[in-house]
Amino acid sequence: MPLFVWILIGVVCIIVIWFITAYNSLVKLRVLVDEAFSGMDIFMKKRNDLIPNLVETVKGYMAHEAQTLDSVVAARHKVMSTRSAEPIENRIKCENELSGALTRLMAVAEQYPDLKADSQFTNLSGQLAAVETDISQARKYFNGSVRQYNTRIAVFPVSIVARIGSFTKKPFFELADAGERDVPLVSF
Hints:
Layout: H1 3-59, H2 66-81, H3 88-109, H4 113-117, H5 119-154, H6 158-164
Helix pairs in contact: 1-2, 1-5, 2-3
């Protein structure tokens, strides 16, 4: 066989090996993103489990704040109904709505000294604060994984493999809008 045939076979083998390596690295990164979301999901489930007890504790003190309580309950219900059946984008949106409702609830609760002194409320709000910290850390890990994955699928020549393998960009877990970044104002 002529030399150029051997060279051509060598080049084809190198391209095939590179393609397989690039594809496998993209699969590993996609699994890493899924694992990161799953870890964050565990903490969000823990938060969702705390909410009914917190709402029941607050109800007795804040009877005239029904709208605030209803928004928390509705947001929690929406989150629970989107569990794993929905795309990540929808789940992120629902989780952001729940976070906003909880922030408003805690801001309103600050206006009730008796409620703040209640041991069950103090315990539940402490647990909620700890879970929120865990969720925050898990979001950082998730967003780092998404950044790494999105960068990898966008960089040439791996982007060719990503397109062929149907690897699509993943969303970051961030606040839905600028209004959620502001501390809610509560006045009576």
